[in-house]
Amino acid sequence: MLEIGGAQVWRGQTHVLHGIDLAVAEGEIVALIGANGAGKTTVLMTICGLLRPRQGAVRYRAAGSSEPVDLARLTPEAIVGQGIALCPEGRQVFASLSVRENLLIGAYLRRDRAAIAADLDHVVSRFPILGERARQPAGSLSGGEQMMLAIGRSLMSRPRLLLLDEPSLGLAPQIVEAIFDILSDINEAGTTMLLVEQNASMALELAHRAYVMETGRVTLSGRAQDLADNPEIRRAYLGAA
């Protein structure tokens, strides 16, 4: 579904990604792990069109398409229209707007009102607390509730590929487990995922495959379970002796 080939990406004057190669197959959950500053968020921003590679390509095969498109040639809103949604780091909900308004913002490119209403009902059924708090300002929600809202908002665009940036950030362990269970259910229902996550243990438990990044480069990749069993990864990211 997604292939990044030889991507060289700068943020301002800083060269962040040094020839990244990465692929995500339809139906997978792929995790991207690594230390702060490794370039993980930059990968997601490049896929979304918020940053442009100076070299390399970001190819995506849309539903029903025989040929991939180069996302580097598209605007961010056109990329959303291709079926890609980002659930950003820190949730970034619109604090002064209601929970319901935040969810509807996720469908801003859509015009199919009946389907939007049905998807709103589906999101609320998956996250009942969002239905209970529908009229509350999003800023009044707890961190875990805001994370559910951010995921729900992303789902309202009907993504084929969901990008998630640090969904466990700042959340209590029991909330993280609940969120990751929900992500597993969403994947089983047909949504492909690329997950950036510092909680490497949870990420590798959820994912099918994973990439390890260090200073803008992929240093290891493979089946998530194999990486979880790798002594080097266990020492560096899983807290094992």
Quick structural overview:
The chain is an alpha/beta fold and 241 residues long. It is built from 10 helices and 10 strands.
Account of the 3D structure:
- Helix 3 (99-105) packs parallel to helix 6.
- It contains 10 helices and 10 strands.
- The strands form 2 sheets. The chain has a 6-stranded mixed β-sheet, with helices on both faces. The protein has a 4-stranded antiparallel β-sheet with strand order 2-1-4-5, covered by helices on one side.
- It has helices spanning 40-47, 76-81, 99-105, 113-126, 128-132, 143-155, 173-188, 200-206, 224-229, 231-237; strands at residues 2-11, 14-24, 29-34, 55-60, 69-70, 84-87, 161-165, 192-196, 209-214, 217-223.
- The model has no long low-confidence stretch (mean pLDDT 94).
- The chain is of the alpha/beta class and 241 residues long.
- Helices cover 37% and strands 26% of the residues.
Question: What labels would you give this structure?
Answer:
241 residues; alpha/beta; 4-stranded antiparallel sheet; 6-stranded mixed sheet
Layout of helices and strands, plus pairs?
Elements: E1 2-11, E2 14-24, E3 29-34, H1 40-47, E4 55-60, E5 69-70, H2 76-81, E6 84-87, H3 99-105, H4 113-126, H5 128-132, H6 143-155, E7 161-165, H7 173-188, E8 192-196, H8 200-206, E9 209-214, E10 217-223, H9 224-229, H10 231-237
Parallel strand pairs: 3-8, 3-9, 6-7, 7-8
Antiparallel strand pairs: 1-2, 1-4, 4-5, 9-10
Helix pairs in contact: 3-6
